[in-house]
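Write out this protein's structure.
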Amino acid sequence: MANEDIVLEIIAQTLGRKSVNTGCTIDFLDLNRYDNAQKLAQTLNEEFGLLLTCRWIQKAKNLKEIVSFVTENGNLREDTPFVKEVKSEGIFDILVRDLKRFDNNYDRRVVPLPDHILSKVRREHRLENNINVYYYRENDSETTFIITDQGISYCDTGAKILEQYAWGKIDRVEYSPSENYFFIYFSENSDVYDSYSRYTLVKGLNDDESRYFAKVLTNTAENFENEEDNLFEELNTFMEKGNLEEALVIVEKLLNLNSENLPFYHFAKGRILAEILNTQEVPDNNLIEQAQKNISIARETMDEETLDEFDSSMHETEGILHRICGEFYLARNSFACAMEAKDRDIREEAEEYYLEAEEALKETWENYTERYDYKDRKFIMPVKNISGCIVPDIDVFRMNNIPPCFSFPAGHPVANELYMGHPYNPSVYIPYEGSEYAFFLDKIDELCYLLQCLGATEISITAIKGKAVNELTNSSIHIDGDANVKMFSGGAEYNNKFGSEKDSCSKSSLALTQRFDPMKLPYLPEDLVWYPEQTNWQRLVQQRINGNMLEYHQTISTSETKFVSSTEENDLKASAKFLWTKVNATYKDALETKFKQSMETEWRIDVKFRSILDFDKFAKNGDNVEQEVKNVACLTDEEEKYKEEVLFCLEEGGVISDEERSFLERKRKKLGVSEDRAKEIENVCLNELMTAEEREYIEELQAAMIDGVIPDNVRRLLDRLRKSLDITETRAKELELGLMK
């Protein structure tokens, strides 16, 4: 079958007319003349392979009968010059050509439009500068109708009406003479349409001309759809063959159509550019920007259903672009999102990309806490399957690839657990649930350690409200430290006269008091975590060291260790819910427990210090030890024998038992060694057999032991002291056994 518009165009050219339509009569076209009828019959026979006669042409009722016969029975030659001319024309070239007949240079205008009209049209119809306007119809100063390369648009500024229909959504346009209205249909059915009066679109045309106007619009919609389909098929063919440059040319043509599928074509362009960049040794920055821009436009303009279909592919494309730019962390996150794809090939390809990104990030993971600011790594969550588990507020890691620089409490990390980083100790991450109180205890612990190093003789902690201080000794955080102190005693003093422990939030008054015998001048220890941010502690150190402060008091509340604002917590809760849903966890229970509001706890710390003047005697004792070593450098034969006996007694554990003391006393008297001289020899022997750290550990053991037994709560403190003194467990047991023998 031949196209009706092509038949009309050939007839017009044959008869030397600018244009014709099916409403033209035989007389109007001068086909009663033999030469005209013969010429037309010959042309139609040649172009369409027919056997028409001059007589048949002249007997036709009107041109419509001739055109109908040709379109139904004729087949246009592919090599005809006319066909080549038509094929070389674009959709909108044909549209403009067909619209020219309606231009009256007054209230119906066809391109080119005057600048003042074009400016008015763009403003009222809200058109971008890249949209071409081909037809303009002005009803009055407020009402206009236009035809563009995007579709048709009607505007009534008075009624504030703007109605626009894209070519891709228009099925056909029909004109009804009886109703004097144009009907725009959006599907093959006739139940979805919009309508406009003839006056609105074409004022002054008769019924035949109005039908032709409707036909022009219908043809444009059909040609638009056909051209888009053909270009899309070409695009798929080039993509399958890997002809990226050719595919890029086609997708540019599709973008110029301004169809309803524009969001997808933007994505296609971004993907093609990413594939081209992937083959370049030195990536073109301009192409990178174009690719990123097109992917961004696609995301912003796609409807929800289309976005769901192509979301994984877009994530993979974004990952490729990030990788090309050397942004491996962002690439890794994009590939993790793409791994959730429904398409198996995309999933597997994204998995490969993800593993490559993880390998490239190996050094980054080893120094993760140094490379990222606290706010960017504040929350983390380990998961077994990371597919789709990427959110803005929480860094997610696979359980088998958690950065080695992280430190967790015993029994952690656990899959699907939300963790929060310590604000001042970069490597430490603890469960978010209870983090506020855990940081509170950690701060108390460091303050007590600092107070010991400053020469505290007594530290008392009293619960003002909230949790009781006995939880301090039950927690993994505790009071002690390498502060060169001897602990005299420690314990909790309970006072429940105000109420039960269950009502401790406001009524409990529990106190913990520990006493020490500091032996070293006040000093500021190294590696403090909280200290750099605590100006009141810094003043305390200055006042203690420079001013010999003897007492200090401070109140600390969990409100000071709450590092998550309400707004931040709401965002965090939403992100955590998303992740727990992804990993099939029962997020409702998790939200209730992990984000439960905890009661405020407030404790008061009271401390007494030893006067700096009293530390002089310890300096003198140090001088005495040095003198003892010098005195023992030359021993008599009797003193040498006594030294051998002392060393024998100290072999096991480095401690002289009561029985051994009696034995040595008898030996001393028998050998004629004085008591002072014997004491000097014993001190020198102790220095030879034990390090200063071991002697300090022995002193703490002696102070902590009650009736030959070390309490469990003190055992944990001693173990920390042992580690800080770098004493092995085996050696610590030897020293303890020696003390107990």
